[in-house]
What does this fold into?
Amino acid sequence: MASAYVVSVARLLREVPAVLEVNVQAPFDAARDREGLDPTASDVPDGAMVTLSLRLESYVGGLRARGTVRAPWRGSCRRCLTTVDGRVEAVVDERFVPERGDADELAYRYQGDEVDLAPLVHDAVFLELPLAPLCRPDCQGLCPQCGADRNVAPCACRAPSDPRWDTLDALRFDVETGGTGIA
Ligand SMILES: [Zn+2]
Ligand SMILES: [Zn+2]
It folds into this structure.
């Protein structure tokens, strides 16, 4: 079956410069290697719909692709481990050059008059996936002593009081809220 991400660019390559608007909504191609990846890391669910809105422009020697890629993701809250769902929106601005063209390390390749946008879509989405999602900004997490979900009910454990941890917590809070109190 032809991939929805493969686009014919024959006209773009014939009439330089030319523009082609590409709007694709297709399941995420799940054929990728998950080995070595953290199984709790956020990922795009198999079969999830990815939305691609790109503007392809031909120039002498290649194609420029600009636009956005949107995809849903699923992961685990880093504090309480519940499932978290979200969406990424990645802004892309990339170049495609012919397979046999000049060596351009930063550009994607195309063959003949077809461009496969799937590698670009993969890269764009995976760069945007959250590494450590939270179910909500003020998630209380699991009690490190009894394992109870402190979002549901406070447990009877007493938090160990140690001024060093207080300092660390303040630092962490600062990072999470995007503050710049501690440089
Ligand atoms: Zn949580
Ligand atoms: Zn507890």
Notes: The longest strand covers residues 83-98. Helices lie at 10-14, 118-128, 163-176. Residues 6-128 form one domain. The pocket of zinc ion (ligand 2) is lined by residues 143, 145-146, 148, 155, 157 (CB under 6 Å).
